[in-house]
Amino acid sequence: MYSNREVLGKNATVRRLKSSVTVMTARHPLARLVSAFRDKFADGRKLDKPQSKDHFIYFWSPALKALYRNTNMPLQINFTQFVTFALLHKPHEPHWEPFTKLCSPCDISYQYIIFLDTLTEDLQFLMSALNISTINSKTRDNRGPREGVDPSDDLTLDPDLLQYYLQLPPYLMAKVLYTYTLDIKLLGYQVPEVLNAIAT
């Protein structure tokens, strides 16, 4: 995956940004990490074959090799193994790289930041602000169930995702929080105290 800067070149990117409405979409970084595990590594389920050839080439094979595991079937890694791979061996993967590195919010003055946690409301606001009459209402939404989550509490981690982090050893939880510190602070996200306690 290439950034606009790599595809267009620095000067063309700067010109394009000056004449464009800039919008960044954000998501709780800890939710993104779990989502990547669910999507790329089948949520820890044992697989007799990879989801696709590309999944095997770009995700399974490098992860299993980094973890010194056999790449033969069946395929399976747990969340702790995934986090070890993601943060220590492949930190620049767009599916889990921090937004502060991926979207360069310190270099680009975004006019709007919309949150996946409140996507419907944010898109309605954006449509109104930009005088857009229609938008594709079938926008992909892969956040999973939000039962028991107070809609006014959208910048905290969903309770159903907490279980993934409770299994991490302290050094790895500390690495997760360190990796996403800027995302969490810059975008106003919260980290449950229990996870801070594990990391210390």
TrEMBL record:
Its EC number(s): 2.8.2.-
InterPro entries hit by this protein = Carb_sulfotrans_8-10, Sulfotransferase
- What does UniProt give as the signal peptide span? none
* Compartment(s) of residence: Golgi apparatus membrane
User: What Gene Ontology cellular component terms go with this record?
Assistant: Golgi membrane
Q: Name one GO biological process term.
A: carbohydrate biosynthetic process
Which molecular-function annotations from GO does this UniProt entry contain? sulfotransferase activity
- Establish whether keyword Cell membrane is in the entry: no
Which positions are tagged coiled coil?
none
For this UniProt entry, which segments traverse the membrane? none
Q: How does it sit in the membrane?
A: Single-pass type II membrane protein
For this UniProt record, give its keywords in alphabetical order, as a comma-separated list.
Carbohydrate metabolism, Glycoprotein, Golgi apparatus, Membrane, Signal-anchor, Transferase, Transmembrane, Transmembrane helix
Record keyword Lipid biosynthesis present: no
Q: Tell me the domain of life.
A: Eukaryota
Any Pfam family hit: Sulfotransfer_2
Which enzyme type, at the first EC level? transferase
What family does this belong to? Belongs to the sulfotransferase 2 family.
Q: What name does UniProt use for this protein?
A: Carbohydrate sulfotransferase
Q: Which organism is it from?
A: Petrolisthes manimaculis
